[in-house]
TrEMBL record:
This is Tyr recombinase domain-containing protein. Keywords: DNA recombination. Residues 215-384 form the Tyr recombinase domain. It comes from Paenibacillus vini. Pfam families: Phage_integrase. InterPro entries: DNA_brk_join_enz (IPR011010), Integrase-like_cat_sf (IPR013762), Integrase_catalytic (IPR002104).
């Protein structure tokens, strides 16, 4: 099993060695010494190495996780499972993951009679889903590599049938669901009284903050009550974020949390102040809380009176709250049954993608997102293309709707729908006042025409798509081809942004930032142009 060891620091450069650890008698002393250190520092709570239950405590989680080593028939494997757990803890693996892995391994050991009946592993995997069999196989391979069992090759060969997938890009909700959440959250928390919104207050803060600041959910719950500050000298606003996944450290620094100071705008600063004021009005705590999301806020809003040992909300409680909000508010109240539920960690990815599309310096994104390497950001390329396309579709729908609204005053939705269906944005009599251009008309009546025109009329906001009857087939073909061309240029521009970002360490940073800004402006113009062109296509489809 791979273990990361820090050799030395040289300024900002850290030299590390990745060592493959195989359990032998020679490293038993190292395992025991590491156990003693973890015990003395409170990372694990246990009386002795021989105990059946160990409690693994991480500052990220409110409660410790219990690791149970209770094999009876094959009790000799309890030692290996404990040693495996120690290595995983040193490697800073999450308590939830280690707990799951130990349960997987105990299940395999019992099912295969301590790996003597490998065929039983195939029978067990046959009862599992493909993703679960892949996960359990990945765990088994790590353990076998560490344990150094005599029939290792036979076990590895058995695992090949259930080859696990390497980490891939996170699947994100569709853009339409994101827009539904944004609209519903804004309306719900600004239009309803506090009695209805109080139980979902943490969701409001989560949505507003993590969509612009790429925080991990665990970092969000670790925000201190006094996390924001205003610098009078520079007239700047800042927020202090607790980072939990910075560079891998040696085990003596295992649970030391890092803090990152990130610049924010006045609107975000004022919103956090407002959120704190709401808590004071509600008398959430008798004294100033330690965290921005104290557990007492959850108790107050959900009428929970049970005394708990922890003093802040955590991911487990928030997931329950978010699921309830989706069901009660998004689906039942607003009626969006088709809307996908957004997970706590999704908004961090939205924030990173949005920063890319705005042309942020990759170093700035890495710093704000808590990434160790700029290369990590390459995972967001496909998401960026997808979200750009989805955003364009949304803009196209809006532009089409806005053209209808321009022609309607003081009408009910029913009348509006009639106009939509009949395509009466402009009558032919009205069009006679405008210039005739290819497949339509131009509303620009200034003397500068055509010197001030764009390369293609269809991407101009003054263009009215209104082909003659004998031109319609050619016009629609032209519209479709131009839309495809713009789509290809958008994809290429996003790719260019990623390529330029990779060069940030090799050439002048200022030149890279200027280039990124120019590409971002170009991307925005292309998106607007394609949205306009696609809105004409929506218009055509609505007539058919």
């Amino acid at each position: 099993m791979l273990v990361r060891k820090k050799l030395f620091n040289a300024g900002i450069t850290k030299v590390e060695l990745i060592e493959n650890i195989i359990m032998t008698e020679s490293n038993e002393a190292d395992i025991l010494n590491t156990f003693i250190f973890l015990k003395d520092t409170g990372i694990i709570e246990v009386n002795s190495f021989e105990d059946t239950e160990w409690k693994y405590r991480s500052e990220v989680y409110n409660v410790p996780f219990t690791l149970v080593f209770d094999l009876e028939i094959h009790s000799e494997f309890n030692y290996l499972l404990k040693a495996y757990s120690i290595i995983r803890i040193v490697n800073r693996v999450a308590p939830t993951t280690i707990t799951l892995e130990i349960n997987y391994l105990k299940r395999i050991i019992n099912a295969t009679d301590a790996f003597r009946a490998i065929n039983e592993y195939h029978i067990m995997c046959a009862t599992l889903s493909s993703p679960e069999s892949s996960r359990i196989t990945k765990t088994l391979l790590m353990f076998i590599n560490f344990a150094g069992l005599p029939n290792k090759h036979e076990i590895v060969e058995a695992c090949e049938r259930y080859s696990y997938k390497k980490h891939s890009n996170r699947e994100l909700p569709d853009f339409h669901s994101v827009m539904i959440y944004d609209k519903c959250i804004e309306h719900f928390f600004t239009q309803f009284d506090s009695e209805e919104t109080i139980k979902y207050l943490p969701i409001w803060l989560w949505w507003r903050l993590t969509n612009i600041l790429p925080m991990r959910p665990s970092e969000f719950f670790l925000l201190r009550y006094n996390c924001i500050e205003f610098d009078n000298l520079s007239n700047e606003f800042w927020i202090n974020i607790t980072r939990i996944k910075e560079e891998k450290r040696d085990r003596t620094e295992h649970e030391k949390l890092n803090y990152s100071k990130v610049k924010i705008d006045n609107a975000t600063y004022q919103f956090i102040k407002q959120f704190k004021n709401i808590q004071e009005i509600l008398h959430v705590t008798k004294t100033t809380p330690e965290y921005l999301l104290p557990y007492s806020l959850y108790q107050k809003s959900n009428k929970k009176s049970r005394t708990v040992a922890h003093n802040r909300m955590d991911l487990h409680v928030f997931k329950i709250q978010l699921k309830k909000f989706h069901h009660e508010v998004i689906v039942k109240y607003y009626g969006y049954e088709e809307c996908n539920q957004i997970r706590p960690g999704d908004t961090r990815h939205f924030a990173i993608i949005n920063m890319f599309l705005q042309g942020y310096n990759p170093l700035s994104i890495a710093r704000m997102a808590g990434h160790n390497k700029i290369a990590t950001q390459e995972n967001y390329y496909n998401h960026a293309v997808h979200f750009a396309e989805s955003h364009i579709y949304h803009l196209a729908q809006q532009k089409h709707e806005n053209r209808i609204n321009e022609k309607i005053t003081n009408t009910l939705l029913g009348n509006k729908r009639d106009v939509y269906n009949n395509g009466l944005q402009y009558s032919y009599d009205e069009l006679q006042h405008f210039r005739k251009v290819e497949y339509g008309y131009c509303k620009d009546l200034t003397p500068e025409f055509p010197d001030n025109c764009t390369d293609n009329c269809m991407s101009c906001t003054l263009y009215i798509f209104k082909p003659a009857i004998n031109e319609q087939e050619a016009a629609i073909k032209n519209l479709t081809e131009y839309s495809c061309e713009l789509g290809n240029r958008i994809t290429q521009e996003i790719e260019n942004i990623f390529k330029i970002g990779k060069r940030i360490n090799t050439i002048n940073t200022i030149r890279v930032e200027e280039s990124l800004l120019n590409k971002s402006r170009s991307l925005s113009q292309l998106k607007e142009a394609k949205a306009l062109v696609d809105s004409f296509r929506i218009e055509v489809d609505s007539y058919e």
